[in-house]
Protein backbone atom coordinates (compact mmCIF):
# COMPACT_ATOMS: atom_id res chain seq x y z
CA UNK A 1 0.00 0.00 0.00
CA UNK A 2 1.89 3.02 -1.28
CA UNK A 3 0.72 6.41 -2.54
CA UNK A 4 0.40 7.10 -6.24
CA UNK A 5 3.02 9.59 -7.51
CA UNK A 6 2.46 13.31 -7.01
CA UNK A 7 4.35 16.58 -7.09
CA UNK A 8 5.19 18.13 -3.74
CA UNK A 9 5.39 21.84 -3.00
CA UNK A 10 6.30 23.23 0.40
CA UNK A 11 4.38 26.49 0.58
CA UNK A 12 6.27 29.50 1.92
CA UNK A 13 3.13 31.58 2.46
CA UNK A 14 -0.64 31.48 2.07
CA UNK A 15 -0.26 33.33 -1.26
CA UNK A 16 2.25 30.72 -2.43
CA UNK A 17 -0.07 27.89 -1.42
CA UNK A 18 -3.05 29.42 -3.19
CA UNK A 19 -1.04 30.17 -6.35
CA UNK A 20 0.22 26.57 -6.38
CA UNK A 21 -3.32 25.24 -6.01
CA UNK A 22 -4.51 27.53 -8.83
CA UNK A 23 -1.74 26.28 -11.12
CA UNK A 24 -2.74 22.67 -10.33
CA UNK A 25 -6.27 23.16 -11.63
CA UNK A 26 -8.56 20.86 -9.69
CA UNK A 27 -5.83 18.33 -8.84
CA UNK A 28 -4.12 20.13 -5.96
CA UNK A 29 -4.55 19.20 -2.32
CA UNK A 30 -3.48 20.95 0.87
CA UNK A 31 -1.77 18.87 3.55
CA UNK A 32 -1.41 20.06 7.16
CA UNK A 33 -1.54 17.33 9.84
CA UNK A 34 -2.36 14.68 7.25
CA UNK A 35 -4.01 12.37 9.78
CA UNK A 36 -7.07 11.88 7.58
CA UNK A 37 -5.58 12.71 4.20
CA UNK A 38 -2.54 10.41 4.37
CA UNK A 39 -4.58 7.22 4.96
CA UNK A 40 -6.67 8.15 1.91
CA UNK A 41 -3.51 8.82 -0.10
CA UNK A 42 -1.97 5.53 1.07
CA UNK A 43 -5.13 3.67 0.00
CA UNK A 44 -5.07 5.66 -3.27
CA UNK A 45 -8.60 6.83 -2.58
CA UNK A 46 -7.15 10.30 -3.14
CA UNK A 47 -4.64 10.85 -5.91
CA UNK A 48 -3.60 14.50 -5.93
CA UNK A 49 -1.37 15.66 -8.79
CA UNK A 50 0.16 18.25 -6.47
CA UNK A 51 0.39 18.08 -2.71
CA UNK A 52 0.80 21.52 -1.11
CA UNK A 53 2.41 21.29 2.34
CA UNK A 54 1.42 24.26 4.52
CA UNK A 55 3.20 23.07 7.68
CA UNK A 56 6.04 25.60 7.38
CA UNK A 57 3.88 28.71 6.83
CA UNK A 58 4.50 30.93 9.83
CA UNK A 59 1.70 32.48 11.85
CA UNK A 60 -0.94 29.82 11.20
CA UNK A 61 -0.34 27.91 14.43
CA UNK A 62 -2.01 30.41 16.76
CA UNK A 63 -5.14 30.46 18.87
CA UNK A 64 -6.04 34.16 19.06
CA UNK A 65 -8.38 35.54 21.70
CA UNK A 66 -10.36 38.23 19.86
CA UNK A 67 -12.80 39.10 22.62
CA UNK A 68 -16.14 37.62 21.60
CA UNK A 69 -14.56 34.91 19.52
CA UNK A 70 -11.45 32.80 19.17
CA UNK A 71 -9.53 32.44 15.94
CA UNK A 72 -7.91 29.06 15.37
CA UNK A 73 -5.27 29.14 12.63
CA UNK A 74 -4.89 26.39 10.04
CA UNK A 75 -1.95 24.82 11.88
CA UNK A 76 -3.49 24.64 15.35
CA UNK A 77 -3.03 20.98 16.30
CA UNK A 78 -5.58 19.08 18.38
CA UNK A 79 -3.02 18.97 21.19
CA UNK A 80 -2.94 22.79 21.26
CA UNK A 81 -6.74 23.07 21.27
CA UNK A 82 -6.94 20.51 24.08
CA UNK A 83 -4.40 22.31 26.29
CA UNK A 84 -5.29 25.96 25.58
CA UNK A 85 -6.14 27.80 28.81
CA UNK A 86 -8.52 30.31 27.19
CA UNK A 87 -10.50 27.52 25.51
CA UNK A 88 -10.65 25.62 28.81
CA UNK A 89 -12.03 28.73 30.54
CA UNK A 90 -14.28 30.28 27.89
CA UNK A 91 -15.32 27.35 25.68
CA UNK A 92 -15.51 24.41 28.10
CA UNK A 93 -17.65 22.37 25.72
CA UNK A 94 -14.78 22.31 23.22
CA UNK A 95 -12.24 21.58 25.93
CA UNK A 96 -14.29 18.63 27.16
CA UNK A 97 -14.82 17.26 23.66
CA UNK A 98 -11.09 17.19 22.92
CA UNK A 99 -10.66 14.21 25.23
CA UNK A 100 -12.55 12.17 22.67
CA UNK A 101 -10.57 13.28 19.63
CA UNK A 102 -8.45 10.43 18.32
CA UNK A 103 -5.34 9.31 20.22
CA UNK A 104 -2.32 11.13 21.67
CA UNK A 105 -0.07 10.59 18.66
CA UNK A 106 -2.74 11.67 16.17
CA UNK A 107 -3.55 14.77 18.27
CA UNK A 108 0.09 15.83 17.98
CA UNK A 109 -0.33 16.26 14.21
CA UNK A 110 -4.02 16.60 13.31
CA UNK A 111 -5.44 20.11 13.05
CA UNK A 112 -8.74 21.72 14.01
CA UNK A 113 -9.21 23.35 10.60
CA UNK A 114 -8.16 20.21 8.75
CA UNK A 115 -10.75 18.17 10.58
CA UNK A 116 -13.48 20.67 9.66
CA UNK A 117 -12.31 20.66 6.00
CA UNK A 118 -12.26 16.86 5.93
CA UNK A 119 -15.92 16.95 7.08
CA UNK A 120 -16.12 13.41 8.35
CA UNK A 121 -19.68 12.80 9.60
CA UNK A 122 -18.30 11.16 12.76
CA UNK A 123 -15.67 13.75 13.71
CA UNK A 124 -16.09 16.18 16.59
CA UNK A 125 -14.68 19.40 15.12
CA UNK A 126 -17.34 19.94 12.43
CA UNK A 127 -20.10 19.49 15.03
CA UNK A 128 -18.47 21.88 17.50
CA UNK A 129 -17.83 24.45 14.79
CA UNK A 130 -21.56 24.38 14.02
CA UNK A 131 -22.46 24.53 17.71
CA UNK A 132 -20.17 27.55 18.23
CA UNK A 133 -21.36 29.59 15.22
CA UNK A 134 -18.12 28.92 13.40
CA UNK A 135 -17.00 31.17 10.57
CA UNK A 136 -14.51 29.70 8.12
CA UNK A 137 -11.89 32.11 6.78
CA UNK A 138 -10.76 31.25 3.27
CA UNK A 139 -7.95 32.54 1.06
CA UNK A 140 -8.19 32.21 -2.71
CA UNK A 141 -6.80 33.70 -5.92
CA UNK A 142 -9.21 36.63 -5.58
CA UNK A 143 -8.42 37.41 -1.96
CA UNK A 144 -10.16 36.38 1.23
CA UNK A 145 -13.71 35.45 2.05
CA UNK A 146 -15.64 34.23 5.07
CA UNK A 147 -18.38 31.65 5.14
CA UNK A 148 -20.58 30.31 7.93
CA UNK A 149 -19.70 26.77 8.99
CA UNK A 150 -23.23 25.62 8.14
CA UNK A 151 -22.67 26.70 4.53
CA UNK A 152 -19.12 25.37 4.47
CA UNK A 153 -20.03 21.81 5.47
CA UNK A 154 -21.93 20.64 2.41
CA UNK A 155 -22.00 16.89 3.00
CA UNK A 156 -20.07 13.82 3.94
CA UNK A 157 -16.38 14.49 3.23
CA UNK A 158 -17.25 17.55 1.14
CA UNK A 159 -16.98 21.27 1.73
CA UNK A 160 -17.59 24.52 -0.08
CA UNK A 161 -13.96 25.25 -1.00
CA UNK A 162 -13.13 26.01 -4.60
CA UNK A 163 -10.14 24.04 -5.93
CA UNK A 164 -7.76 27.01 -5.60
CA UNK A 165 -8.83 27.98 -2.09
CA UNK A 166 -7.51 27.09 1.34
CA UNK A 167 -8.83 27.61 4.86
CA UNK A 168 -6.55 29.93 6.83
CA UNK A 169 -8.47 29.96 10.12
CA UNK A 170 -11.81 29.26 11.76
CA UNK A 171 -13.47 31.68 14.17
CA UNK A 172 -15.61 30.20 16.94
CA UNK A 173 -17.88 32.27 19.18
CA UNK A 174 -17.37 32.22 22.92
CA UNK A 175 -20.67 31.29 24.58
CA UNK A 176 -22.08 34.04 26.82
CA UNK A 177 -20.88 33.85 30.42
CA UNK A 178 -23.01 31.42 32.43
CA UNK A 179 -24.05 29.39 29.39
CA UNK A 180 -24.61 25.77 30.33
CA UNK A 181 -23.00 23.13 28.18
CA UNK A 182 -23.10 19.43 27.63
CA UNK A 183 -21.19 16.99 25.49
CA UNK A 184 -21.45 13.22 25.29
CA UNK A 185 -20.20 10.72 22.78
CA UNK A 186 -20.26 6.98 22.36
CA UNK A 187 -17.55 5.07 20.48
CA UNK A 188 -16.81 1.37 20.41
CA UNK A 189 -13.31 2.12 21.63
CA UNK A 190 -12.34 5.42 23.30
CA UNK A 191 -10.73 7.74 20.75
CA UNK A 192 -12.11 5.93 17.73
CA UNK A 193 -14.71 7.44 15.45
CA UNK A 194 -17.94 7.88 17.36
CA UNK A 195 -21.18 6.07 16.64
CA UNK A 196 -22.93 9.23 17.81
CA UNK A 197 -22.28 12.37 19.81
CA UNK A 198 -24.42 15.26 20.97
CA UNK A 199 -23.41 18.73 22.16
CA UNK A 200 -25.65 21.35 23.71
CA UNK A 201 -25.50 24.99 24.83
CA UNK A 202 -28.27 26.53 26.94
CA UNK A 203 -28.58 29.96 28.53
CA UNK A 204 -30.86 30.36 31.54
CA UNK A 205 -33.11 33.39 32.02
CA UNK A 206 -36.08 33.61 34.41
CA UNK A 207 -36.18 29.87 34.85
CA UNK A 208 -36.40 29.19 31.12
CA UNK A 209 -33.95 27.95 28.49
CA UNK A 210 -32.75 30.55 25.99
CA UNK A 211 -30.54 30.50 22.91
CA UNK A 212 -30.62 26.72 22.91
CA UNK A 213 -28.23 24.97 20.57
CA UNK A 214 -28.22 21.27 19.90
CA UNK A 215 -25.74 19.71 17.47
CA UNK A 216 -25.18 16.07 16.60
CA UNK A 217 -22.69 13.96 14.69
CA UNK A 218 -22.42 10.38 13.49
CA UNK A 219 -26.12 10.22 12.68
CA UNK A 220 -26.30 11.69 9.20
CA UNK A 221 -24.39 12.79 6.12
CA UNK A 222 -22.60 15.44 8.15
CA UNK A 223 -22.76 16.99 11.63
CA UNK A 224 -25.74 19.29 12.00
CA UNK A 225 -27.75 21.52 14.31
CA UNK A 226 -31.12 20.05 15.27
CA UNK A 227 -33.42 23.07 14.99
CA UNK A 228 -36.67 21.25 15.88
CA UNK A 229 -35.18 20.03 19.18
CA UNK A 230 -33.88 23.53 19.92
CA UNK A 231 -37.38 24.95 19.24
CA UNK A 232 -38.96 22.53 21.73
CA UNK A 233 -36.65 23.71 24.50
CA UNK A 234 -36.56 27.42 23.70
CA UNK A 235 -38.32 29.55 26.32
CA UNK A 236 -39.31 26.58 28.50
CA UNK A 237 -37.96 24.96 31.63
CA UNK A 238 -36.33 21.69 30.53
CA UNK A 239 -38.28 19.36 32.79
CA UNK A 240 -38.10 15.62 32.15
CA UNK A 241 -41.24 15.85 30.01
CA UNK A 242 -39.89 18.75 27.94
CA UNK A 243 -36.56 16.96 27.44
CA UNK A 244 -38.44 13.85 26.29
CA UNK A 245 -40.28 16.02 23.77
CA UNK A 246 -36.97 17.47 22.52
CA UNK A 247 -35.47 13.98 22.23
CA UNK A 248 -38.46 12.84 20.17
CA UNK A 249 -38.00 15.86 17.89
CA UNK A 250 -34.30 15.03 17.53
CA UNK A 251 -34.99 11.38 16.68
CA UNK A 252 -37.51 12.51 14.06
CA UNK A 253 -35.09 14.96 12.50
CA UNK A 254 -32.01 12.77 11.99
CA UNK A 255 -31.40 10.26 9.22
CA UNK A 256 -28.70 7.91 10.48
CA UNK A 257 -27.22 5.27 8.23
CA UNK A 258 -26.57 1.60 8.94
CA UNK A 259 -23.02 0.35 8.65
CA UNK A 260 -20.78 -2.35 10.07
CA UNK A 261 -20.55 -0.58 13.44
CA UNK A 262 -24.22 0.07 14.12
CA UNK A 263 -27.68 0.01 12.59
CA UNK A 264 -29.62 3.18 11.81
CA UNK A 265 -32.15 2.32 14.52
CA UNK A 266 -29.44 1.87 17.11
CA UNK A 267 -27.80 5.18 16.18
CA UNK A 268 -31.18 6.96 16.40
CA UNK A 269 -31.78 5.45 19.84
CA UNK A 270 -28.25 6.30 20.97
CA UNK A 271 -28.43 9.93 19.78
CA UNK A 272 -31.65 10.40 21.73
CA UNK A 273 -30.25 8.85 24.88
CA UNK A 274 -27.12 11.01 24.68
CA UNK A 275 -29.24 14.12 24.00
CA UNK A 276 -31.43 13.52 27.06
CA UNK A 277 -28.32 13.27 29.19
CA UNK A 278 -26.52 16.36 27.85
CA UNK A 279 -29.60 18.63 27.75
CA UNK A 280 -30.12 17.94 31.47
CA UNK A 281 -26.41 18.42 32.09
CA UNK A 282 -26.32 21.75 30.23
CA UNK A 283 -29.39 23.04 32.08
CA UNK A 284 -27.84 22.12 35.41
CA UNK A 285 -24.66 24.00 34.50
CA UNK A 286 -26.47 27.09 33.20
CA UNK A 287 -26.38 30.05 35.56
CA UNK B 1 8.59 17.30 -9.46
CA UNK B 2 7.63 13.67 -9.06
CA UNK B 3 11.36 13.49 -9.67
CA UNK B 4 13.42 12.85 -6.58
CA UNK B 5 13.73 15.72 -4.10
CA UNK B 6 16.84 16.24 -1.98
CA UNK B 7 16.13 16.19 1.75
CA UNK B 8 18.20 16.22 4.90
CA UNK B 9 16.63 14.52 7.90
CA UNK B 10 18.26 14.36 11.32
CA UNK B 11 17.67 10.87 12.67
CA UNK B 12 18.86 9.99 16.18
CA UNK B 13 21.30 12.90 16.01
CA UNK B 14 22.82 12.08 12.63
CA UNK B 15 22.05 14.11 9.48
CA UNK B 16 21.13 11.98 6.47
CA UNK B 17 20.84 13.54 3.00
CA UNK B 18 19.02 11.54 0.35
CA UNK B 19 17.14 12.10 -2.87
CA UNK B 20 13.65 10.69 -2.47
CA UNK B 21 10.37 10.55 -4.37
CA UNK B 22 7.75 12.88 -2.81
CA UNK B 23 5.44 9.91 -2.23
CA UNK B 24 7.95 8.04 -0.05
CA UNK B 25 6.54 7.54 3.45
CA UNK B 26 8.78 8.45 6.37
CA UNK B 27 8.38 4.86 7.64
CA UNK B 28 9.80 3.48 4.38
CA UNK B 29 12.51 6.14 4.31
CA UNK B 30 13.71 5.03 7.75
CA UNK B 31 13.58 1.33 6.93
CA UNK B 32 14.64 1.18 3.28
CA UNK B 33 16.86 4.24 2.81
CA UNK B 34 18.52 4.30 6.24
CA UNK B 35 18.24 0.63 7.18
CA UNK B 36 16.65 1.51 10.52
CA UNK B 37 14.30 -1.45 10.63
CA UNK B 38 13.42 -1.03 14.30
CA UNK B 39 10.46 1.09 13.16
CA UNK B 40 7.79 -1.46 12.25
CA UNK B 41 5.13 -1.04 9.59
CA UNK B 42 1.77 -2.55 10.47
CA UNK B 43 -1.41 -1.12 9.00
CA UNK B 44 -0.03 1.81 6.96
CA UNK B 45 -3.07 3.93 7.68
CA UNK B 46 -2.52 5.25 11.16
CA UNK B 47 -4.52 2.75 13.20
CA UNK B 48 -2.03 0.34 14.77
CA UNK B 49 0.73 2.67 16.01
CA UNK B 50 3.60 0.23 15.29
CA UNK B 51 5.44 2.84 13.16
CA UNK B 52 5.38 5.58 15.82
CA UNK B 53 8.50 7.77 15.96
CA UNK B 54 9.22 11.16 17.52
CA UNK B 55 9.23 14.19 15.23
CA UNK B 56 10.76 17.21 16.95
CA UNK B 57 10.17 15.47 20.28
CA UNK B 58 6.51 14.51 19.81
CA UNK B 59 5.16 11.14 18.78
CA UNK B 60 3.87 10.77 15.22
CA UNK B 61 2.80 8.00 12.87
CA UNK B 62 5.67 7.69 10.40
CA UNK B 63 3.28 5.99 7.93
CA UNK B 64 1.18 9.18 7.88
CA UNK B 65 4.16 11.43 7.25
CA UNK B 66 6.01 11.88 3.99
CA UNK B 67 9.79 11.81 4.12
CA UNK B 68 9.84 15.17 2.28
CA UNK B 69 7.73 16.69 5.06
CA UNK B 70 10.43 15.68 7.56
CA UNK B 71 13.14 17.63 5.72
CA UNK B 72 15.15 19.57 8.30
CA UNK B 73 13.37 17.97 11.26
CA UNK B 74 14.67 15.87 14.14
CA UNK B 75 13.45 12.28 14.10
CA UNK B 76 13.95 9.86 16.95
CA UNK B 77 13.46 6.14 16.37
CA UNK B 78 13.57 3.14 18.67
CA UNK B 79 17.24 2.64 17.78
CA UNK B 80 17.99 5.72 19.91
CA UNK B 81 16.61 4.08 23.05
CA UNK B 82 19.24 1.40 23.46
CA UNK B 83 20.90 -1.71 22.06
CA UNK B 84 20.45 -5.41 22.75
CA UNK B 85 23.52 -5.24 25.02
CA UNK B 86 22.54 -1.97 26.67
CA UNK B 87 18.77 -1.52 26.87
CA UNK B 88 17.28 1.91 27.50
CA UNK B 89 15.19 2.62 30.59
CA UNK B 90 11.82 2.12 28.89
CA UNK B 91 13.06 -1.09 27.25
CA UNK B 92 14.28 -2.43 30.60
CA UNK B 93 10.88 -1.72 32.14
CA UNK B 94 9.27 -3.68 29.30
CA UNK B 95 11.63 -6.61 29.89
CA UNK B 96 11.16 -6.52 33.67
CA UNK B 97 7.35 -6.51 33.41
CA UNK B 98 7.15 -8.93 30.49
CA UNK B 99 5.37 -6.17 28.53
CA UNK B 100 6.00 -7.80 25.16
CA UNK B 101 5.52 -11.16 23.57
CA UNK B 102 5.99 -11.23 19.77
CA UNK B 103 7.48 -7.72 19.84
CA UNK B 104 5.97 -6.43 16.62
CA UNK B 105 4.09 -3.55 18.23
CA UNK B 106 6.82 -2.86 20.80
CA UNK B 107 8.85 -0.16 18.97
CA UNK B 108 5.68 1.92 18.55
CA UNK B 109 4.80 1.53 22.22
CA UNK B 110 8.34 2.48 23.29
CA UNK B 111 8.23 5.69 21.24
CA UNK B 112 4.71 6.64 22.35
CA UNK B 113 5.77 6.08 25.96
CA UNK B 114 8.83 8.31 25.45
CA UNK B 115 6.42 11.12 24.46
CA UNK B 116 4.06 10.28 27.34
CA UNK B 117 6.84 10.41 29.93
CA UNK B 118 8.08 13.78 28.68
CA UNK B 119 4.75 15.53 28.27
CA UNK B 120 1.74 13.87 29.84
CA UNK B 121 0.31 13.49 33.33
CA UNK B 122 0.28 9.77 34.15
CA UNK B 123 -1.13 9.86 37.64
CA UNK B 124 -3.39 6.83 37.39
CA UNK B 125 -4.07 3.81 35.21
CA UNK B 126 -6.89 5.60 33.42
CA UNK B 127 -4.52 8.31 32.17
CA UNK B 128 -1.90 5.72 31.26
CA UNK B 129 -4.42 3.63 29.31
CA UNK B 130 -5.82 6.72 27.56
CA UNK B 131 -2.33 7.75 26.44
CA UNK B 132 -1.58 4.21 25.22
CA UNK B 133 -4.90 3.84 23.43
CA UNK B 134 -3.49 4.65 19.98
CA UNK B 135 -1.18 1.61 20.00
CA UNK B 136 -2.47 -1.88 19.37
CA UNK B 137 -0.92 -5.04 20.86
CA UNK B 138 -2.48 -8.36 19.95
CA UNK B 139 -0.48 -10.54 22.38
CA UNK B 140 -0.20 -9.10 25.85
CA UNK B 141 -3.61 -7.85 26.91
CA UNK B 142 -1.91 -4.55 27.91
CA UNK B 143 -1.77 -5.31 31.65
CA UNK B 144 1.99 -5.62 31.69
CA UNK B 145 2.50 -2.62 29.40
CA UNK B 146 0.46 -0.51 31.83
CA UNK B 147 2.52 -1.92 34.73
CA UNK B 148 5.76 -0.93 32.96
CA UNK B 149 4.51 2.62 32.37
CA UNK B 150 3.29 2.86 35.95
CA UNK B 151 6.81 2.14 37.16
CA UNK B 152 8.39 4.58 34.68
CA UNK B 153 5.90 7.33 35.61
CA UNK B 154 6.65 6.89 39.31
CA UNK B 155 10.35 7.60 38.84
CA UNK B 156 10.34 10.43 36.30
CA UNK B 157 10.93 14.12 36.94
CA UNK B 158 8.57 17.02 36.19
CA UNK B 159 6.95 17.04 32.74
CA UNK B 160 7.48 19.78 30.15
Question: How does this model look, in words?
Answer:
The complex is a heterodimer of chains A (287) and B (160). Chain A folds into three domains: 7-53, Uridine Diphospho-n-acetylenolpyruvylglucosamine Reductase, domain 2; 63-173, Uridine Diphospho-n-acetylenolpyruvylglucosamine Reductase, domain 3 (2-Layer Sandwich), CATH 3.30.465.10; 180-285, Enolase-like, domain 1. Chain A is built from twelve helices and 14 strands. Chain A has helices at residues 14-23, 37-42, 78-83, 85-90, 92-98, 104-107, 112-118, 124-131, 149-152, 227-233, 240-253, 264-285, and strands at residues 7-10, 28-31, 50-53, 63-65, 69-73, 135-140, 143-148, 153-155, 158-159, 166-173, 180-186, 196-205, 208-217, 224-225. In chain A, the strands form four sheets. Chain A has a five-stranded antiparallel sheet. A four-stranded antiparallel sheet of chain A has the order 11-12-13-14, with helices on both faces. In chain A, a hairpin with a 2-residue loop joins strand 6 (135-140) and strand 7. The radius of gyration of chain A is 19 Å and the shape is globular. By secondary structure, chain B is an alpha+beta fold. Chain B has five helices and five strands; from the N terminus they run E-E-H-E-E-E-H-H-H-H. Chain B has a five-stranded mixed sheet, with helices on both faces. The N and C termini of chain B lie far apart (40 Å).
Question: Topology, please?
Answer:
The complex is a heterodimer of chains A (287) and B (160).
Chain A: E1 7-10, H1 14-23, E2 28-31, H2 37-42, E3 50-53, E4 63-65, E5 69-73, H3 78-83, H4 85-90, H5 92-98, H6 104-107, H7 112-118, H8 124-131, E6 135-140, E7 143-148, H9 149-152, E8 153-155, E9 158-159, E10 166-173, E11 180-186, E12 196-205, E13 208-217, E14 224-225, H10 227-233, H11 240-253, H12 264-285
Helix pairs in contact in A: 7-8, 10-11, 11-12
Chain B: E1 5-11, E2 14-20, H1 26-33, E3 52-55, E4 58-61, E5 74-76, H2 89-96, H3 106-119, H4 125-132, H5 143-155
Parallel strand pairs in B: 1-5
Antiparallel strand pairs in B: 1-2, 3-4, 3-5
Amino acid sequence: MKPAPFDYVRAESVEHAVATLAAAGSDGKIIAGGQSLMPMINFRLVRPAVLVDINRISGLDRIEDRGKHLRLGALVRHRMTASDAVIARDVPVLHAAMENVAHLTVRNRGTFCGSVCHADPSAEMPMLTLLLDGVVRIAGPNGEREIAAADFLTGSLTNALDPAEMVTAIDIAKPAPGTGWGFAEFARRHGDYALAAVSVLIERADGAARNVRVAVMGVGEIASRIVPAEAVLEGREPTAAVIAEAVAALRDDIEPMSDLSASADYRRHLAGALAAKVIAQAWERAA
Amino acid sequence: MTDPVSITVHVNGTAHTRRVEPRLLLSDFLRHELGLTGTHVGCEHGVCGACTVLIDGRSARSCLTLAVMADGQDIETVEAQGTQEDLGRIQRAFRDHHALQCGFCTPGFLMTIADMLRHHPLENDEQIREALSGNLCRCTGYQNIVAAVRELASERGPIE
